[in-house]
Fold this sequence. Notes:
- About 30% of the residues lie in helices and about 25% in strands.
- By secondary structure, the chain is an alpha/beta fold.
- Among the domains are: about 10-55 and about 165-230 and about 340-385, FAD/NAD(P)-binding domain (3-Layer(bba) Sandwich); about 235-325, D-Amino Acid Oxidase, Chain A, domain 2, CATH 3.30.9.
- Strands 1, 2, 8, 9, 10, 11, 17 and 18 form an 8-stranded mixed β-sheet that branches.
- The chain is globular.
- The two termini are about 40 Å apart.
- Pfam families: DAO.
Amino acid sequence: xxxxxxKQHYDVVIVGGxxxxxxxxxxxxxxxxxTGSVLVVERDWTYAQSATALSSSSIxxxxxxxxxxxxxxxxxxxxxDFPELMAVNGDRPDLAFKENGYLFLADQKGFDxxxxxxxxxxxxxxxxTLLDTEALIRRFPWVNPDSLAGGTYGxxxxxxxxxxxxxxxxxxxxRSLGVEYVENEVVxxxxxxDVITGVRLGDGQLIGCGQLVNTxxxxxxxxxxxxxxxxxxxxxxxxxxVFDCHTPLPGTVPLTIDPTGVFFRPEGxxxxxxxxxxxxxxxxxxxxxxxxxxxEEEVWPVLAExxxxxxxxxxxxxxxxxxxxxxxxxxxxxxPHDQVRNFLFCNGFSGHGLQQAPAIGRGLSELIIYxxxxxxxxxxxxxxxxxxxxxxxxxxxx
Length: 398
């Protein structure tokens, strides 16, 4: 049942209450320079089909662009500090950060790219080790090195964590700081010329606003269109598979990415894996069918070849989630529209939304409070590049 807002006007209305919406709300409410009101409108308080809930819940610093590296370095530290930052009435949510790192494997062509990226990562403070095949086998003896020239391994700030925990932590803390949440849906965005004046909710409520933040995930394009705007964002399906292995891998097991794009990581005493599918069409918002053939045809053959122990594995669980996929360049679109300045985008994360939420939420709060970025300069992710058809390319996309 839809819930009702307590006021008719808010300084900031955030459309979408999962991790990026709640992170933005938290950073606004926790900043003493902000004295305004915030309403978060979330259509489904179970969050069952949100990208946050259905993701592989991981974070990495092994990117090619300095800003993406810096975003993740801040995010990793934020995750470590989460219990203190999100404490409410003695409850200190721990995200159980498993800092096992990412292991990127590469053939000779890919290894040349990894070496180039490695220097950029070092220059931006990331702790990443470059491994030739001998060093790779010494450290991770369960890897079959055939066709490999080496890899890179993140020693710090990489791993996986509690996805529901980070969202609920932000949400609970934001509410404790005065942010209001309603379970409802934005069905109309009210615009007068180049100014957003408010929204209409599914039950007819009219809510005025000073700023509108679009954190609606895969529905972000739909929300933008309600304002007469557009972004190159589509819903793309990603199937994830949990499998058991007869012979567990010894030692530290990172989130490991094969040159084919197939990846896996530990999931308790089991393993979680998937791939960037060869066939990757836009899907309907309601299409969460698991592509079981993807495991049999694309994932398992690669796993069995790269990790001999994985020749004998059994899938015990699976699910499908959605990427809010930025068709332009696989990077998020963050910040105001060039003409409708009080409409702020936070869309198109293409699988990076969970790990980037702390820095993006902080950045959006700075735009709202100060009119510009105060910490990390996120302007490379601006909507301007969409207008100019100028991709912000990232060489390290999974």
